[in-house]
Write a structure and sequence with these properties.
By secondary structure, the protein is mainly alpha-helical. The chain is built from 4 helices and no strands. InterPro entries: HD, HD-Zip_IV, Homeodomain-like_sf.
């Protein structure tokens, strides 16, 4: 902190970035992961209606389901490549 009660510029911006990022992170429960993964095995590219329905069943927002599938497809691709 400086004499004026402010944080140095670098520290302030780092804390702000971290808090914004941390606020958006969602940890899925095992039941949610199992439900999403089972659906992924049947259909790795669900349409928007399927994502909304799956979100309601799993207690997730449509966008959380959308991004989970996007990340899971990327993870599956990496596994196939290596």
């Amino acid at each position: 902190m400086t004499d004026f009660g402010e944080e140095p510029a670098g520290e302030s911006s780092n804390l702000q970035k971290r808090s914004e990022r941390d606020g958006q992170y969602h940890k899925y429960s095992m039941e949610q992961i199992q439900r999403l993964d089972a659906f992924f095995k049947k259909c790795p590219h669900p349409d928007e209606d399927q994502q909304k329905q799956l979100g309601r069943e799993a207690g997730l927002d449509h966008m959380q389901v959308k991004f989970w599938f996007q990340n899971r497809r990327a993870q599956a691709k990496v596994i196939l490549i290596s």
